[in-house]
Design brief:
The complex is a heterodimer of chains A (193) and B (218). Chain A has 193 residues and is mostly helical. The model of chain A has no long low-confidence stretch (mean pLDDT 87). Helices cover 81% and strands 0% of the residues of chain A. Chain A has six helices and no strands. By secondary structure, chain B is an alpha/beta fold. Chain B has helices spanning 42-50, 72-78, 94-105, 110-123, 139-153, 169-186, and strands at residues 3-13, 16-27, 31-35, 57-62, 65-66, 79-82, 157-161, 189-194, 205-210, 213-217. In chain B, 34% of the residues lie in helices and 28% in strands. The chains are: A mainly alpha (193), B alpha/beta (218). The A-B interface holds A 50, 53-54, 57-59, 61-69 and B 50, 52, 72-73, 75-76, 80-81, 83, 86-91, 101, 104-105.
């Protein structure tokens, strides 16, 4: 992005270029995909692993013996936490990217082409409309929900074999990644046609 | 008087018949021992009594209501199942394994809960294990931790799966004495599966599993 500034036509301002690239690449697409991958690789895999282990060792029967509803103890928190997490991760990811991009450009670009931070931020903000916010929220909420549901579904398939656990983890991660990419593509295609 | 009743209970897993036309009544304040062998359905019988498995025919009831008619909160106070193996949540400490199911269901005074935990954990020699996690317990301690939880809950019926296995003679006497003391105070019914070498003289009645039925012993 920094080096490409040198190829900008004379009538294109650097601040417009930077904010446009950030908006269309990071905010609209890279952010949702990257944060989804992080959620899958860190949290969803851990949840699938723990729940699969709980199935294998009979903890659901223990829960039944304690008359505790696994839907309230295990499932509901996952289905609420994952979408909320993804929304918060989007925000955090975008903030970090904004700061990182600006610092990187400031370090490697001449002062004549480097936009000031407020110019950059207002350039980004001016591009974000209600459709963008709705699209991002939809990607986060639907994505988080789907990731949570897939984790639960594969965990609950585990029966008595030790190898069922690793199978559940790898299969759920694969399906989650495929659904994440498909969902993001579909929502983007519908929102930005 | 409320009693746990199994009426014409038949249960099978896949094609294997476990029990057929089983009838048993366990009264309030009574201790029943059931002598079991290997894979003869001892644990299944206890799970039937706890409502964790449903019979293919017949009904398990407490008082005049079948177990499936009770809510989760009512069942928690009604029947407690002490598992032979595991029976604890690996993600929690032993202390939280005791406390969390109780506070999930009941609005109990923390000081009263602490008192009961302290009292019974001393009796069962588990006081030093409370801060540890289930993976740090041996099999005997795991069974006793299961028992500790239900002694604190004080259900009307306690079903205990082979609690005596692996206990030293001194600890065995302590555990039986603690159960009897709890029964004396709360009038709970106790159903315990036992294996060869376990004591049964404290029981009011003893049965043996034979050919998918229960045979009473003199």
């Amino acid at each position: 992005m920094t080096f490409s500034v040198s190829f900008l036509p004379n009538n294109v301002l650097a601040v417009d270029y930077f904010s446009s690239v950030f908006y269309s690449v990071v905010f609209r697409e890279l952010g949702p995909i990257t944060t989804g991958i992080v959620l899958i690789s860190r949290s969803a895999v851990a949840v699938t692993s723990e729940l699969s282990h709980a199935r294998l060792t009979g903890e659901f029967e223990v829960m039944a013996a304690n008359r505790m509803n696994p839907k309230l103890v295990y499932f509901l928190p996952i289905l609420v936490a994952f979408p909320v997490c993804l929304v918060l991760m989007f925000v955090w990811f975008d903030l970090i990217c904004i700061v990182a991009i600006y610092v990187f450009i400031s370090l490697f670009e001449s002062t004549s082409t480097t936009p000031d931070i407020f110019g950059f931020l207002s350039g980004v903000a001016s591009r974000i409309g209600i459709i963008d916010v709705t699209t991002i929220l939809l990607k986060a909420l639907a994505g988080g929900l789907i990731i949570g549901v897939v984790s639960l579904q594969f965990s609950l398939k585990v029966k008595d074999r030790y190898t069922d656990v690793s199978r559940a983890i790898s299969n759920s991660a694969t399906v989650q990644l495929m659904l994440l990419f498909s969902l993001n593509f579909l929502i983007s295609a519908l929102s930005y046609r | 008087m409320s009693e746990l009743k199994l009426t014409n209970v038949t249960i099978k897993f896949d094609d294997r018949l476990v029990f057929q036309d089983l009838n048993l009544v366990v009264k309030e304040g009574e201790t029943v021992c059931i002598k079991t062998g290997v894979l003869d359905g001892g644990s299944t019988l206890l799970k039937l009594m706890a409502g964790l498995v449903q019979p293919d025919h017949g009904v398990v009831s407490f008082g005049d209501r079948p177990l499936y008619d009770y809510s989760d909160a009512e069942l928690f106070q009604l029947v407690g199942m002490c598992f032979e193996a595991r029976g604890l949540f690996d993600v929690f400490t032993n202390y939280n394994n005791l406390v969390l199911p109780i506070i999930y269901h009941q609005d109990i005074e923390p000081s009263a809960l602490e008192q009961r935990i302290a009292y019974y954990s001393q009796k069962l020699e588990l006081a030093e294990q409370l801060d540890k996690e289930p993976f740090q317990l041996n099999d005997v301690q795991t069974r006793l931790m299961n028992l500790l939880k239900w002694l604190i809950v004080e259900p009307k019926v306690l079903v205990v799966d082979e609690i005596q296995s692996g206990l030293s003679p001194q600890l065995r006497h302590k555990v039986i004495a603690t159960l009897q003391e709890a029964q004396e105070r709360t009038k709970c019914a106790i159903v315990m599966t036992v294996t060869a070498g376990d004591e049964t003289q404290f029981a009011h009645r003893t049965y043996r599993i034979n050919n998918c039925k229960l045979e009473a012993e003199a």
